[in-house]
Amino acid sequence: MLLDELRWFVVLAETEHVTSAAAELGVAQPTLSRALARLENQVGTPLFDRIGRRLRLNGYGQIMLEHARRGIAEMDAAQVRIDALLDPDSGLVRLAFLHSTANWFVPDVLRQFRALAPAVRFELFQGAAHDIAERLRTGQADVAITSPRPTQVPCTWRVLYVERLCLAVPADHRLAGRARIRLSEVADETFIALGADFGLRQLTDQVWAESGITPEIAFEAMEIPTMEGLVAAGFGVAVVPVPRPGRGAPSVIYIPLSDTRVKREIGMAWVKGHELSPAAARFAEVVSATASDARNV
């Protein structure tokens, strides 16, 4: 089967609508329908259930989608490596990174690297730790900046820097003047937290359990800035990383936790046994150097 047709299948599986997929791909609808028919004939079974004018991916299609994504990623990675050998100063780096590294660390790294290698292109993905791990697992990312260390796939892991956690409270909160606090002291407070799948939420769950807290959670956010914004608005308190100097949210007070062991490691990961392209390897070196500087701040 042709690689282009495999890409067409992925788009069709994601939209589950021939007309929409054809428009997104810029191909004629009959051409896309014939390509799907060839693929289904080749694998020996329908990959979609037909419901009126819509398609719904069936169990066979789910298997094909998983392997199609992985196969496309591997072919793209092969092309990247070939391009890098042909021109070591160019190439593509597919970088996945946490939301919480997007406001200073990742932009700093990208700025420094682009000054060194302006011809290298980037494919960027910003998301939660579980989504980043999935992109590593499926070959859609070369390098990830994330936390905690991915467990879904064997990874080479390099700790970049460590963040202590603190309690974020509104500026007019009764505890705002405290220099340090134990979480057990706010067991009766309402909390703002990330969703259950997020790495920071899992760490927070562990800290709550160790402090004997069964938290009342007012809202589960998708990003730390949203948590901080809701804290500032008086909707609750939150456990967040201690912000870098000058980067905290207005109207929020950050109180360090008494337990200095409560920390979050931010690290760089790539799939173990997969050789990084020259561009990605060079980028990893810049990331490590920038992290070394960050630890000294």
UniProtKB/TrEMBL annotation:
PANTHER family recorded: HTH-TYPE TRANSCRIPTIONAL REGULATOR CYNR, TRANSCRIPTIONAL DUAL REGULATOR HCAR-RELATED
Described purpose of this protein according to its UniProt entry: Required for the induction the katG gene for catalase. Involved in the response to hydrogen peroxide.
Highest taxon listed in the record's lineage: Bacteria
GO molecular function, one term: DNA-binding transcription factor activity
Gene Ontology CC annotation, any one: protein-DNA complex
Transmembrane segment boundaries: none
Keywords on record: Activator, DNA-binding, Transcription, Transcription regulation
HTH lysR-type domain boundaries: 1-58
Organism this protein belongs to: Mycolicibacterium phocaicum
Entry similarity comment: Belongs to the LysR transcriptional regulatory family.
High-level lineage: Bacteria, Bacillati, Actinomycetota, Actinomycetes, Mycobacteriales
Name assigned to this protein: Probable hydrogen peroxide-inducible genes activator
Keyword Transcription applies: yes
InterPro entries: LysR_HTH_N, LysR_subst-bd, WH-like_DNA-bd_sf, WH_DNA-bd_sf
Pfam families: HTH_1, LysR_substrate
